[in-house]
Amino acid sequence: MGRLPSRSVSSPVGDPAVLLRAMFDAAVAAADPLRRVPAFLPARPAGRVVVVGAGKAAARMAQAVEQAWDGPLSGLVVTRYGHAVPCAHIEVVQAAHPLPDAAGERAARRILELVSDLGVDDLVLALISGGGSALLALPAPGITLADKQEISTALLRSGASIATMNLVRKHLSAIKGGRLAAAAYPAATVGLLISDVPGDDPAVIASGPTVAEASTPAQALAALAAFQVRVPPAVREHLETSQGCPGPDDPRLARVANHVIATPQQSLEAAAAVARQAGVTPVILSDSLEGESREVGIVLAGIARQVRRHGQPAPAPCVLLSGGETTVTVRGPGRGGRNVELLLSLAVALRGEPQVHAIACDTDGVDGSEEVAGALIGPDTLRRAAELGVDPATALAANDGHGFFAVLDDQVVSGPTLTNVNDFRAVLIT
Q1: Which of 359, 356, 339, 333 is nearest to 294 (CA)?
Q2: Residues paired with 377 in a beta bridge
Q3: Is 312 exposed, middle or buried (0-12, 13-18, 19+ CB in 10 A)?
Q4: CA–CA gap between residue 186 and residue 256 (Å, rounded)
Q5: Phi and psi of 122, rounded to 5°?
Q6: What does the pLDDT look like over 243-256, one tens digit per residue?
Q7: Which of 208, 205, 192 is nearest to 64 (CA)?
Q8: Dihedral of the alpha carbons of 147, 148, 154, 158, in degrees to the nearest 10
Q9: Percent helix, strand and coil across the chain, each to the nearest 5
Q10: How far is CA 313 from CA 307, 319, 322, 358, in A?
Q11: DSSP string for residues in 78-135
Q12: Which residues is 193 bridged to in the sheet?
């Protein structure tokens, strides 16, 4: 699953880069849909079974359903370009992420049509994972795909949290914010959700297509104003006149059951088990760290120094594990990427602190819009950068973590992992 930096390292736990990568691989494997889906499949209904879904894990989830299901089924799921896997009965469509495209719009429209003529004996099995919000790109009436693309671009560059982005997305959608499940009524809907959001709130995962929504269009409009996002006239008119998403008391959602089948915490615990086997004490700081990537990097550097100087929160060798989703406010010409920005900030803040190594990767294998999962750093990162003529402070100011780690050849390239439980970070103090 990618390349590791090849340089000799003397460490009481062996090669730190190898151990860090093993922890990342364990975190990804713990969220593999082939492992997680079968235990949550419902009983066969008297009527038809229609499988729909969206997200970076959607195709793998569909494959898992087909392998475990004992009856007839059909359907369609949409996943990110490059994340498809073969399925025999469920059609797999690929579309763009993080910015929606016409392929996602067509797929979302077809999914809505598939569930709209079902009866009380039928079942909709909805396979939802991170990335599904952008992939289910069906604008509300009166709003164009171009409107949604403009707003998505602005929000992605603004530093808005995933919860804020999904709040806006669901109020501009004809399928998210519970509308998929409402369209399927009177059929029963069972949602299987892989969480990529802090707190594992089903309403936030992929903007909650099968989950009732309590927020209002006015709140979405206020969020756009707070992040100084230009609001196209058609979008403003919609948000000022819309009745909002199906709420908790909507009778069309009475036959919906949602199950979160994989979470960031489960993946952190899998990584912790790998650390213990290597004689390293794991400390899970949080499965839901948020904030600006560069600020979180500074905080993690401070905790690493606390371990080095005072043996707290655990004596070395130990590893600080965390998940969640940080953000990058892109102000420079770089390509962003919240994991590489966090690592670059961490390296600058550590200033070559001995015996501290770290990895930060997105568990879907894509950090931002790059086909790179993340990167690794060590005590020699700044020295090697200087030898190569790369200035870390300049790269950080330009939001160019990807460029920085590409020059050092310290990127982690996993390829599509076919799952998504958000970011994985490990700071190893040997």
Answers
A1: 339
A2: 358
A3: exposed
A4: 10
A5: -95, 165
A6: 999 999 999 999 99
A7: 192
A8: 150
A9: 40, 20, 40
A10: 6, 10, 14, 17
A11: EEETT-----SSEEEEEE-SSS--HHHHHHHHHHHHHHTT--TT-EEEEEE-TTHHHH
A12: 128, 260
Is the distance from CB of 373 to CB of 392 less than 8 angstroms? no
> What whole-number distance in Å separates Cα of residue 118 and Cα of residue 181?
11
Identify the three-state secondary structure at position 306.
Answer: helix
Place of tokens 């990058």: 328
Band (369; pLDDT cuts 50, 70, 90): confident
Q: Which of 209, 188, 198 is nearest to 77 (CA)?
A: 209
d(CA 207, CA 119): 25
pLDDT at site 7: 46
First to last CA, the chain: 25
Q: How far is CA 396 from CA 102, 151, 334, 399, 411, in A?
A: 34, 25, 9, 5, 16
Query: What are the two backbone dihedrals, phi and then psi, of residue 173, each rounded to the nearest 5 degrees?
Result: -115, 155
CA distances from 401 to 83, 237, 265, 287, 339 (A): 24, 39, 26, 23, 8
Global pTM reads 0.93
**Contact between 379 and 308 (Cβ < 8 Å):** no
- Cα angle vertex 291, ends 330, 284, to 5°? 130
**Residue tagged 């959602």 (tokens):** 253
Tell me which CATH homologous superfamily contains domain 16-30+265-429: MOFRL domain (3.40.1480.10)
Does the pLDDT value for residue 422 go beyond 50? yes
The residue whose two tokens read 């401070």 is: 302
Say yes or no to pLDDT of 3 above 50: no
Q: Which CATH superfamily is domain 34-262 in?
A: Glycerate kinase, MOFRL-like N-terminal domain (3.40.50.10180)
Kindly give the pairing relationship between strand 423-429 and strand 356-362: antiparallel
Q: Which structure tokens are listed for 337?
A: 């990427």
| Burial environment of residue 402 by CB neighbours within 10 A (0 to 12, 13 to 18, 19 or more) | buried
Give the DSSP letter of residue 251: G
- Token reading at 268: 């952190």
Grade residue 156 by pLDDT with cuts at 50, 70 and 90. Answer: confident
> What pLDDT does 1 receive?
39
The ranges assigned to domains in the chain are: 16-30+265-429, 34-262
Tell the residue number behind the tokens 């849909």, with chain if given.
Answer: 33
Return the sign of the alpha-carbon dihedral for residues 95, 96, 102, 108: positive
